Amino acid sequence: MKIRRTRSRVLAAFAVLALVVAACGGNGDDPEPAAEPDDTAEEPVDDEPVDDPVDDDADAADDVSDVTLTVYSGRNEELVGDILNAFTDATGIGIEVRYGDTAELAATILEEGDASPADVYFGQDAGALGALEAAGRFVTLPDDVLDLVDDRFHAPSGAWTGITGRARVIAYNTDMLDAGDLPDSVFDLTDPEWQGRIGWAPENGSFQAFVTAMRVEFGDDTAREWLEGIIANDPVVFPNNTTTVEGVSRGEVEVGLVNHYYLARFTAEDPDFPVENHFLPGDIGGLVNVAGVGVLSTSEHQEAAIELVRYLLSVDVQEFFGQRTDALEFPLRDGVDSPELPTLESLGAPDVDLSQLEDLQGTLQLLQEVGAFQ
Amino acid sequence: MRPADQVIERHEAPASVTRGPRSVTRTHPLVWLPAMVVAMAMLIPAVYLVIAASELPLERILEIVTDLETLRLTGRTLGLAASVTGASVLLGVPIAWLTVRTDLPGRRFFAIATALPLVIPTYVGAFALVAALAPGGLVESWLGWRPPSPYGFGGAFVALTLFTFPYVLITVQAALRGLDPSLEEASRSLGRGPFVTFLRVTLPQLRPSAAAGGLLVTLYVLSDFGAVSILRYSTFTRTLYLQYRTAFDRAPAALLGLLLVTLTIIFVVAEARVAKDRGQQFGRRGPTRSAPQVALKRWRIPAVVLCSSVVLIGLVIPVTVITYWLVRGLASGETANLAFGPAGRSLLVAALGAVAAVAAAAPVAIWSSRSRSRFARLAERASFTGYALPGIVVALALVFVGIRVAPGLYQTLAMLVFAYVVLFLPQAVGAIRSSLLQVEGNVEAAARTLGSPRLTVLRRVTLPLARRGAWAGGALVFLTVLKELPATLLLAPTGYDTLAVRVWSATAEAFYTRASVPAMWLIVLGSIPLAVAMIRERGERL
Q: Has domain A62-165+289-344 been given CATH number 3.40.190.10?
């Protein structure tokens, strides 16, 4: 009797399990049946030729204003929110934006698979764009869009294009150092004279992109040697660029390896902020990385999505990026220069192919091996 | 109650709560069936992790698991979790007693203020601590004195203790409010002083709730990313995030996640040991009446100092830093958005999350506290898997599963609330369960003997007994949802920004002025459930 009861309980338990599986993860407190047929009405456009998505411009043009684009933006709302809203005003194409971390949103798109609601991905790191490209998640952008920017700043395959550039710089505390005290290359920072004076953020995507670039340019051994040299100088580890710049301003460290544009944030809120950027023309430490966009191959609104890319590269928007005081970035459209920043040409940025910066696992491993994260 | 009753009850206990699955038959299907469903749903992240990790070849799995670095990280993580939990109990239990049972000056203020550090997201709290305490920070520049460095183990330990000990505090406060004072009165009448009575009589009765709160702290520390990353202390979760954020390779990250689940199981089992005494509770709740207030006398000053220093570091310093950001920004011409929209949305999701979590937790808690069934125990333990996992892991798991299984609900409020339940259910389960464990199952047995049908007993006896725990658990979930970030970012309806999203988005890009108003809002909204608990307490005393 007892045994039979037990068994019936066990059976009941399995029945419940089956029920749950059948109901597909419906939870106890949600009366709505979670199960829904898996076939979404419109199939993703897998079978369309992805390399030429703008074949019939005329058809798409008239109903474009009913479209609402979903943008996954790893770029902060504070930085691009106004511009994306202005796109709707200019074109009538609606926009819904999901803001988040660049890498996490890329991971989300990878997890979502073909059903991803995203039409456009806007990330602030070539590595994340490269990961989505490698997974075949982007369509090839039309040539007239790609031609707007220098070849260095879009994927050679045309899967994504940079919108703005950010240069790696040495940010330094102006109370403690003069511009003349600073080296012209990050390689000089391994000199013992920099003992205890350097701040860096090895967890940061831009920093890792820079290390990857160093590996691509000079080989793993040189990169390892450099990392070990810096670590021998007891650098202070910060979680990201912002906190590194803060640390420099407090004098906790004298120099920080960061992207150039964080400084403008601080000076906007505090004009006496004691930090300046030191650019590194021609040095690998002055790598120019991009914030860029790609159009999802699963998007049902690729026309409108490409319209958005075009808009982001339009002269007005590009000039805006180059002028705003709180987020001063390099406009990437040929012929548009920021009045506040050195020109990209004068930076003589190292000629690194950004789409080659995809071996992030290798960089992560290297950083872990040398103990950069402590 | 009367000693004679107790003797009889203890004697009878083995007969009424027989070991083994037979007692399941005593639990109404309306309890165990939903509990089962909830438990299954809670396992979704773990199942996802198994699927994702299975992409790895076996030798790579072995390589990662046996890697010295992995072991070292495990050690560091466990060390941090153990110290934070210990400190949280040492801090939480006395403060709970002081704020519930004594004539502590400003008792009601401290009851709320000491719990409020909980609503400060660790990424904001840790950030504020750094801004205040780091070399060259606000304290040094204002006072000219350099405080000890906030970085490394020490900083992570202090920050996490202050921002998580309220889990112990709130759980134990709820237990204290529900405690029958007769045993303590007996002790006092037999000549024991108030402190000996606290140590020898009250404290043992608080063990289940302290253990439940402590477990919440331990698992929170396992899953925290914000504080350890800002305060530079490498843990398991920090490494896991690094994998996700850098390499876009989910398989190794998933494996690390599974290791974390394994650690969780160990802790949950250990907690069950500590909180045991299931058949052997001390008091039974008589007619509701308040315990007499203990006069602190010469201990008043030290007690106030203790509570004040917690409030100072956990609340005043972060609030000061936030205010400083606001004032500095406004002075240089920034405008501050009042953020009513995000505040309303935060309030909504936190309330929905709390209600849903309590509703889902009730059957699990009732079943596991009233039945000796192995399934009941498993269901309770399953509820912990989501809690100890870093938010990003759970969020991505629900992205993966949600979009395939319930595409119509993907990125809707329903899915988001479901994610909150997966993430925070144990907070509600723990609180409800400890309030039920304060009362012996014999109360229900008695009601049955008197001829009430099971359902009536459930409705008229068990659920009212669970109510106090439900309020405390709901409050905990409410507070935790307010600051939740990763799942909100990925699973909320597109464009649905909450206070936590605003704070994150602004601090991530160093727009501190814009972060300050939503951060203030978090603290204001967070005091709501605490104030409600207080008012309820006062109402019961009348």
A: yes
For chain A positions 188-227, those within 8 Å of chain B (CB to CB) are: 203, 205, 208
Whole-angstrom Cα distance, residue B8 to residue B445? 14
Q: How far is B408 from chain A (nearest CA, A)?
A: 7
Cβ density class A75-107: b for 16+ within 10 Å, e for less: bbbbbbeebbeebeeebebebbbbbbbbbbbbb
Residues in B closer than 8 angstroms to A36, CB to CB, are 406-408
Cβ under 8 Å to B: A residues 316-355:
326-327
Spatial separation of the C-alpha atoms in residues B89 and B168, rounded to whole Å: 6
Nearest chain B Cα distance for residue A239, angstroms: 6
Interface test with B, best of A29, A36, A212 (most B CBs within 10 A): A29
Nearest-angstrom CA–CA distance, B324 and A264: 19
The string of pLDDT tens digits covering residues B310-327 is 998 888 888 888 888 888
Domain residue extents for chain A: 62-165+289-344, 167-287+360-370
Amino acid residing at A137:
R
Is residue A30 a contact partner of residue B418, using CB atoms and an 8 Å limit? yes
* Separation CA B311–CA B154 (nearest Å): 19
Non-local (6+) Cβ contacts of A319 within 8 A are: A331, A336
- Taking 70 as the pLDDT cut, the residues of chain B under it are 1-26, 247, 275-291, 440-441, 510, 537-542
Question: Which CATH superfamily includes the segment(s) A167-287+360-370?
Answer: Periplasmic binding protein-like II (3.40.190.10)
Which two tokens mark B477?
A: 């979930």
Determine contact, residues A156/A355, Cβ cutoff 8 Å. Answer: yes
Q: What are phi and psi of B325, to 5 degrees?
A: -55, -45
Q: Hey, is the C-beta of B67 within 8 angstroms of any chain A C-beta?
A: no
Between CA B455 and CA B466 the distance in angstroms is 15
| Superfamily of chain region B24-276+301-541 | MetI-like (1.10.3720.10)
- B43 neighbors B382 (Cβ within 8 angstroms): yes
Full-model pTM: 0.81
B510, A363: Cβ pair inside 8 Å?
no
pLDDT digits (tens, 9 = 90+) for A147-192: 999 888 999 999 999 999 989 999 999 999 998 899 999 999 999 9
Asked if residue B430 lies in contact with residue B215, where contact means CB atoms within 8 angstroms, the answer is yes
How far off is chain B from A336, nearest CA to CA, in Å?
A: 25
Q: Do A108 and B399 touch (CB under 8 A)?
A: yes
Distance in Å, alpha carbon of B405 to nearest chain A alpha carbon: 6
* Contact yes or no for A107/A137 (Cβ under 8 A): no
Contact A242 B396 (CB under 8 A): no
Q: How far apart are CA B96 and CA B112, in angstroms?
A: 11
* Integer CA distances (angstroms), A264 to A249, B314, B348, in order: 13, 31, 36
Measured in residues, chain B has a length of 542
Give me the interface pTM, i.e. the ipTM.
0.81
